[in-house]
Design brief:
It is built from five helices and no strands. By secondary structure, it is mostly helical. The chain has a domain of 100 residues. It starts with a helix and ends in a 13-residue tail after the last helix.
Length: 150
């Protein structure tokens, strides 16, 4: 039978091991997404305040989807293509992470939160210039998908 002192030691070790992943982000709570290429304007970093985007980005994307698909309204604000163009950046070797990799802007948070998204079943997970390079480097007769699925 385990004494109270032994139980307390085991509990302290368990709590300490549970806290290690949080400490590995240098004091950050949660994931640390890659930085964007540029600010949206001189006065704002993103098209909406960062806290607002973190909390409501899906609402913006769904509203944009409905406007585009049902009403034919195409603007850059809240466009998935514009988000990807700004936020999915190459690493030091010039390579782009794909959706599903923790280094991909969207995946950095969605993997952490265990949230499944289906955007990239149809949409490209790379900026247009990177998608075009990838497409042109492949055999034109090869069956390939646009999204992050291989």
């Amino acid at each position: 039978m385990m004494s109270i002192r032994q139980f307390a030691k085991h509990l302290v070790v368990l709590v300490g091991l549970t806290a290690l992943p949080m400490l590995s982000n240098a004091g950050e709570l949660g994931p640390v997404p890659p930085k964007a290429k540029a600010n949206a304007s001189d006065t704002t970093k993103c098209v909406e305040p960062i806290g607002e985007m973190r909390k409501n980005h899906m609402e913006f994307l769904l509203h944009k989807r409905d406007e585009t698909m049902r009403e034919g309204v195409r603007t850059k604000q809240h466009s998935l293509t514009e988000c990807i163009a700004c936020h999915v950046t190459p690493n030091d070797k010039g390579e782009y992470a794909r959706f599903g990799d923790d280094e991909h802007f969207c995946s950095s948070c969605h993997n952490y939160a265990a949230v499944n998204v289906d955007c990239f079943d149809c949409h490209s997970d790379l900026p247009e210039d990177a998608s075009n390079k990838l497409r042109s480097s492949k055999n034109p007769h090869q069956n390939m998908t646009e999204g992050g699925k291989k």
